[in-house]
Each structure stands twice: as C-alpha cells, then as structure tokens.
Amino acid sequence: MTEAFTRAGTPPLDLLDLDGSLTEEDRQIRSVVGQLVATRVRPHVARWYEIGQAPVRELAVEFGKVGLLGMHLTGYGCAGASAVAYGLACLELEAGDSGVRSLVSVQGSLAMYAIWRYGSEEQKQQWLPRMAAGELIGCFGLTEPDHGSDPASMTTRARRDGTDWVLTGGKMWITNAPVADLAVVWARTDEGVRGFVVPMATPGVTAREIRHKMSLRASSTGEIVLDDVRLPADAQLPAATGLRAPLSCLTEARYGIVWGALGAARDCLHAAIDYATSRMQFGRPIAGFQLTQAKLADMAVELQKGYLLALHLGRLADAGTLRPEQVSVGKLNNVREAIAIARECRTILGANGISGEYPVLRHANNLESVLTYEGTSEIHQLVIGQRLTGLSAFNG
C-alpha cells in the first residue's frame, strides 16, 4: 500500500514533518508513482518474485506513459523533472520492489543517461524518445565476470577494422539484458575505454538469462556475450572518453538507490507496524510491549535520517553541486540502514516474517543485491576514505 496520510495530510512515519518541505509538484509526482505502484505492482509482485519473472516490457510501456523513464533528463521525450522528484519516484517504486525500481534506474540513469550525456545528436534522436516511451528497453554493459568492483581491468575489447568497430568479450549481471533492445557497452580500445550503442539483434550478440537468483527475482538479469560484433563507426558514443564516463553513469544510478532503499525500508516498517498493532500475545497487541516499541522507534528514526540525507543530496543535485563521494555517503548509509530495518521488521513478524504473504523478507533479500550493486559498501567506504585522507586505498 502507499503511505496513508493523517493529520492534515502528514504521513504517519513523517515524525519530523518533512513532507512540508517538498514542493507541490514533488508531492504530485510522488502520488502518481505511488498510485501506479499500488495498482500495477503490489497486487502481483509476490507472484513475480516467486516465479522469478516480471512483465518487464509491459511495465516499461506503462512507466513510459507517466514519464518515469529518464524523467530527470531533458528533451527527447524526457520529463525534465527535478532530482528530488526523481528520488521520490525511486522511493515509491522500491516500496513496491527493488527489481521494479532497478528497471527504471537502469533504463533512465544508466542506458539513457549515457546516450544523453555522451552521445551524438543523431544517437540521441534515434534512441532516446522511444526509450523514454518504454518502446525500447536498454541495458548497461560494464560489469564483467571477473571484473566487478575493478572496471579498469575490463577485458572486453573494441578494435578498428576499416571504419567499423569489432567488439569481443562478455558482460555479467546486467539488468534488463535478456529483454533489452540495445546495450550501452563499455570496452577497452587502443585509445582507452570507450562506449558503444549495441543493438541486441546485431550478429554476434548473445544474451543469457541468469537463473536461480535468490534476490531481485522480479527483475530480468543476464549475461551478454560479444563474439566479433561488428558495429559502424557511428555506434561509438563520441563524447565518452576514458573510464570517467561510465563511472559518471554509475553516480547517476547510485543517486536513485539512495532514495529507493528508503522505499523498501518504509514498506517493511509499515508492515511491521500493521502487524504489531493487530497481533495479540499475552492478551494485548505486541505493539504495546516496550521492546517492540523500542524497535519501531529506532527504525523510524533511521528512516527519517536517511530521508533527510537523500533530500539534502537531491537539493545539491538540483543546484548542480552534487559530488560523487557525497552520493557514496548516501548509498553507504541508506542501503546499510534499510537492510537493518528489513531484518529487524522480520523479527517483529516472527514466523510470518518469512512468508511471501508479507513483503519483509522479499525486501530484505532484494536489499542484499542493492547492498553490492552500483558499488559495494566497501567501495563506497574507500571513496569516502580517499576524500577524508587524500590517499587512495583502491590498490592497497
């Protein structure tokens, strides 16, 4: 369910009355996304998770209709919303399921952003309007089977052959890959790391679904194999030179995670409060016991602190001053606290906490993936440590 509103429209978990600091447009966008999640995701997501499959293409079209895909980008059919509004949308999406938010994040903040930021005008016109509408699905090929946190060691190669490029290599753990129409693939060339727009129907491209996942089961994840894939010269993203380009795309995606993780935590806390106020033990609701109230209070405080952090980062982003290490602070804190909240809520639900009839363990399992993708907690600790000390520990 979306968050109920009481006391003149204030959400009951908004202990600090932070809702009043949002603009009317922010609240309207949040409401639209919350209602979409309530009607299109919540009634079905437990089954999607159980069978390990979600209707990704159908969802993409529906999300496109309300402007969710690439919503923080401008032009080319994109909504041009604020960073705060985009964050609120991510929060509502992940309150439904982390996998559903991942669909939107990968489409908009990775694949579309890479083309929008580094592509030619022709590439933008060719791909972005249909991606914004959900007619085309994109994915982002950076992670490799042996190179996750160390993308600088990627082995995927792109070599020139006349005016063409020929790509060889493989990418792993790529969200949307099995259903994607195009991939933004990063490869090493003689001139350094470069990005390429690769239509998935190109000869030599193979996508394989990764099965038996215990997390993000309502998301399509795959491996991409590139076997002498021949691309025209104009497939290269002309402004993407060096590893800084894909890393900037990751910063975009990580920002959405800062907000999204709060949605999963909020949904768990709602479930725990609803359960605790109705579950009778020893002749009274368990919400009336001191230990339960202490757990709920601590979780609500952490949720509010995470929201304040996300809101601050969103306003920095809207001002154009947000730095990558600040996003690392947000992802490190909010995902870490969200997974702690999910686990604590599971204890309040007791045995029912492991049931698919409640969202808590599904969120906890999903957050295990969120904890490590787009940079593990350890990577973000090192980013912050480098900022604090001026020394890089990545090779130490």
TrEMBL record:
InterPro entries: Acyl-CoA_Oxase/DH_mid-dom (IPR006091), Acyl-CoA_Oxase/DH_mid-dom_sf (IPR046373), AcylCo_DH-like_C (IPR036250), AcylCo_DH/oxidase_C (IPR009075), AcylCoA_DH/ox_N (IPR013786), AcylCoA_DH/ox_N_sf (IPR037069), AcylCoA_DH/oxidase_NM_dom_sf (IPR009100), Glutaryl-CoA_DH_mitochondrial (IPR052033). Its cofactor is FAD. SUPFAM superfamilies: Acyl-CoA dehydrogenase C-terminal domain-like, Acyl-CoA dehydrogenase NM domain-like. Keywords: FAD, Flavoprotein, Oxidoreductase, Transit peptide. Gene3D superfamilies: Acyl-CoA dehydrogenase/oxidase, N-terminal domain, Butyryl-CoA Dehydrogenase, subunit A, domain 2, Butyryl-CoA Dehydrogenase, subunit A, domain 3. Residues 23-135 form the Acyl-CoA dehydrogenase/oxidase N-terminal domain. Pfam families: Acyl-CoA_dh_1, Acyl-CoA_dh_M, Acyl-CoA_dh_N. The keyword Endoplasmic reticulum does not apply. Residues 139-229 form the Acyl-CoA oxidase/dehydrogenase middle domain. Residues 241-388 form the Acyl-CoA dehydrogenase/oxidase C-terminal domain. Transmembrane segments: none annotated. PANTHER family: GLUTARYL-COA DEHYDROGENASE, MITOCHONDRIAL. Belongs to the acyl-CoA dehydrogenase family. This is Glutaryl-CoA dehydrogenase. The lineage of its organism: Bacteria, Bacillati, Actinomycetota, Actinomycetes, Micromonosporales.
